[in-house]
Design brief:
Layout lengths: L2 E4 L5 H12 L3 E6 L9 H5 L3 E4 L5 H13 L5 E4 L9 H15 L5 E5 L24 H18 L4 E6 L16 H13 L11 E3 L2 E3 L8 H20 L41 H7 L2 H15 L1
Parallel strand pairs: 1-2, 1-4, 2-3, 4-5, 5-6, 6-7
Antiparallel strand pairs: 7-8
Length: 308
């Protein structure tokens, strides 16, 4: 039986997937946005699920959530299900959180990212994107980005099965009661990709709709756009974290060398490895962060503390 973590599992497709996987005997870790939402997963917990709490529109809470998942032990699969349709949380929840959690959660065997048919209307342009959620984001753009992330991860981590799923327009709180698609089919593919030994379910880099692999927006398979997206997210994270002298997060590359000893103890975190170039650690911005007066001051403080 598999151990599966599902984000956004207090209602909708995430909750339905959690219930089905529990019924099938799998170990399920469910996620609620805050303590008030824990009541919504109470019956799942009574049925054997483990519940964790964190608002994934908030960077610090997202990082803490990843830590909680890792303390429970390595997952066999992670289903990045949480999503919002409109408002300022679109980018933080729909793409930034999946990116961060992918980088910070101990690497599972399978990753599933919830996409949407709306991703086909997304724009493959990254200039001016407000990753922070300071302004309302485009749902279509966010789903294009997360679909691209899924396929990029499949390329970068060939030992992980990474796929994106279009659940269809189903009658959930987001989809509305008049949605025409079958709710059961809306979460079946995620469960299948997370746990099945079927040959098709053990493939990677796919975009799936009701257990059928179909072609996504052309930009999704454009390696240049994949790298641009990952680079934009990594650079934005670097900028956010450098101000606090905290880790910049980037997905480690398969086969990349270990961190240089010079970085040990400097607070850049265990997942410092950069995407670009396949081997380099010192992107221009990271080199600049290394030389920043704030970091130099931190080093001086550490050296002084050792000599007293």
């Amino acid at each position: 039986m598999a151990r599966v973590f599902i984000t956004g599992s207090a209602d909708g497709l995430g909750r339905a997937a959690a219930q089905t996987l529990l019924d099938d005997g799998h170990e399920v870790v469910v996620h609620a946005r805050n303590s008030d939402r824990l009541e919504a997963v109470g019956d799942l917990v009574d049925g054997g699920a483990t519940a964790i709490v964190g608002d994934i529109s908030d960077l610090d809470q997202t990082r803490s959530l990843a830590g909680e998942v890792n303390r429970l032990g390595r997952m066999d699969a992670v289903i990045h299900n949480a999503g919002v349709y409109s408002g300022p949380q679109v980018m933080p929840v729909n793409i930034v959180a999946p990116y961060l959690l992918t980088a910070l959660i101990d690497r599972p065997q399978r990753l599933i990212y919830l996409s949407s048919g709306a991703h086909r209307s997304g724009r493959a342009k990254l200039d001016g994107i407000d990753w922070s959620g300071g302004t309302a984001g485009s749902y279509s753009d966010s789903k294009l980005f997360v679909t691209t992330l899924a396929v990029a991860v499949a390329r970068i981590w060939p030992d992980v099965l990474s796929n994106a799923v279009d659940p269809g327009w189903v009658p959930t709180r987001m989809g509305g009661p008049g949605a025409p698609d079958d709710l059961r089919l809306g979460h079946l593919t995620q469960e299948w990709l997370a746990t099945s030994d079927d040959a098709d379910a053990r493939t990677s880099g796919g975009y799936w709709y009701h257990q059928e692999r179909i072609e996504p927006h052309p930009a999704v398979r454009d390696q240049r756009f994949q790298d641009q997206l990952l680079d934009a997210l990594a650079r934005w994270q670097r900028g956010r974290r450098t101000a606090k002298l905290c880790p910049r997060v980037a997905l480690p590359i398969a086969g990349a060398p270990p961190r240089p000893p010079a970085l040990l103890g400097l607070g850049f975190g265990d997942r410092f490895e950069a995407f670009r170039g396949g081997s380099g650690f010192f992107e221009e911005g990271v080199q600049q962060a290394e030389k920043s007066p704030e970091l130099q001051g931190k080093r001086s403080t550490k050296r002084s503390s050792r000599t007293t």
